């Protein structure tokens, strides 16, 4: 296959970008892959990359030379470009919605979602919950262009001895004598970090809340939000910020005690999946795709969003669990990942969808 990806991409860091990178890596050795992106600085073997901020004429010349059989777009940011290229070069368009935000805070995405659905051959999303939201919003009839491909991760199971755990904590300058609740999230209001900070002010002094944001992100809104969060923290020493690369995050997971995601909205969170696979008890809000991953009390814990008191309650419970109960939850979590959220399953689902879409398009 000849596949053109259109997306934000690494080194811009987020879950969507990591999924796109996994897809390109999977296809690049057997298929012809090209990428149009505004993000610069990554060199990729066997992938032709072009700047989305170049002129339309230059972009068209690049696409004509690559002659893609299918376009896979992963961002609102470049939707007009993806639609234009699909129509100009008569190529099917698959648009992946990693999040479904019809209206959130002061932004209304209604018109752009309708535009995406109208002009795409297939719209994929990452959770059953998101498909239901889209179907209801779009008033779909019996024919549906919406497919679900859930995110997947590697099997990250590892057994950390107390000695190794302490080595990792020393490396990242973390206390050896406290329970650590890690919050792996970009610094955005939708992640509910402010509720975690409020909880930290009233929780046991032997618990540290570690807010881990992706290393290298320089979004102005996120920088401002971090300042707001620091003002909220004040002199509270139970909260610490840390910036980590993806590999560092995976390294630090087993050295923590709880993974907390107090998100207000969420798809199929890679952070939740990776923490579960790494052997870390997860507590997250009962929103979006979280309810498709977590069976509360069995393989992790769910709590109501927008409630710092709920966070205090669930963190307190997890940190006081017996080893027997904790190990049972961890075993169930890892079994869930292997059965339903493996990276291999995700990648094969995209490959099958790409092939099916190309064949259907050719037979129109």
Order of helices and strands: EHEEHEHEEEHEHEHEHEHEHEHEHEHHH
Radius of gyration: 21 Å
Instruction: Please give the share of residues in helix.
Output: 40-55%
Q: Please name the CATH architecture of the largest domain.
A: 3-Layer(aba) Sandwich
CATH homologous superfamily placement of the largest domain: Glycogen Phosphorylase B
Please list the strands of the largest sheet in the order they lie side by side.
Answer: 3-2-1-4-5-8-9
CATH topology value of the largest domain: Rossmann fold
Distance between the termini: 19 Å
* Percentage beta strand: 15-25%
Polypeptide structure, described:
The mean pLDDT is 91. The two termini are 19 Å apart. By secondary structure, this protein is of the alpha/beta class. It has helices spanning 15-27, 56-66, 79-88, 110-119, 128-138, 162-171, 193-200, 220-233, 246-252, 270-278, 290-293, 308-319, 323-340, 343-362; strands at 2-6, 32-37, 47-51, 70-73, 93-97, 103-104, 107-108, 122-125, 146-148, 179-184, 207-214, 239-244, 258-261, 281-285, 301-303. The protein folds into two domains: 2-152 and 343-362, Glycogen Phosphorylase B (Rossmann fold); 162-340, 3-Layer(aba) Sandwich (Rossmann fold), CATH 3.40.50. The protein contains 14 helices and 15 strands. Helix 7 packs across helix 12 and helix 10 (270-278) crosses helix 13 (323-340). Strands 3-2-1-4-5-8-9 form a seven-stranded parallel beta sheet, with helices on both faces. The chain has a six-stranded parallel beta sheet with strand order 12-11-10-13-14-15, sandwiched between helices.
């Amino acid at each position: 296959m000849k596949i053109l990806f259109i997306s934000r991409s690494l080194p811009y860091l987020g879950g969507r970008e990591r999924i796109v990178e996994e897809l390109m890596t999977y296809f690049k050795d057997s298929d012809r892959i090209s990428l149009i992106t505004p993000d610069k600085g990554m060199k990729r073997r066997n992938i032709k990359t072009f700047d989305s901020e170049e002129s339309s004429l230059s972009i068209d010349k690049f696409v004509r030379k690559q002659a893609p059989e299918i376009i896979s777009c992963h961002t609102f940011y470049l939707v007009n470009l993806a639609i234009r290229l699909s129509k100009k070069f008569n190529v099917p368009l698959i648009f992946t919605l990693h999040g479904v935000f019809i209206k959130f805070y002061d932004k209304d995405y209604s018109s752009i979602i309708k535009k995406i659905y109208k002009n795409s051959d297939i719209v994929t999303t990452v959770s059953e919950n998101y498909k239901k939201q889209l179907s209801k919003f779009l008033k779909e009839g019996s024919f549906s262009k919406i497919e679900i491909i859930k995110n997947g991760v590697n099997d990250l199971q590892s057994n950390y001895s107390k000695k190794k755990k302490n080595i990792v904590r020393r490396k990242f300058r973390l206390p050896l004598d406290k329970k650590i609740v890690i919050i792996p999230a970009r610094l955005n209001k939708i992640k509910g970090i402010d509720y975690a900070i409020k909880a930290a002010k009233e929780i046991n002094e032997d618990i540290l809340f570690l807010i881990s944001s992706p290393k290298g992100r320089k979004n102005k809104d996120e920088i401002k939000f971090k300042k707001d969060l620091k003002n909220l923290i004040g002199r509270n020493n139970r909260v610490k910020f840390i910036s980590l690369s993806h590999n560092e995050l995976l390294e630090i997971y087993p050295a923590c005690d709880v993974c907390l995601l107090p998100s207000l909205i969420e798809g199929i969170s890679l952070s939740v999946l990776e923490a579960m696979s790494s052997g870390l008890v997860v507590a997250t809000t009962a929103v979006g795709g979280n309810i498709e991953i977590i069976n509360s009390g069995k393989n992790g814990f769910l709590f109501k969003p927008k409630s710092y008191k709920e966070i205090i309650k669930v963190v307190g419970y997890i940190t006081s669990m017996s080893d027997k109960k904790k190990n049972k939850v961890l075993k169930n979590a890892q079994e869930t990942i292997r059965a339903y959220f493996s990276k291999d399953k995700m990648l094969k689902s995209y490959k099958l969808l790409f092939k099916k879409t190309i064949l259907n398009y050719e037979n129109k």
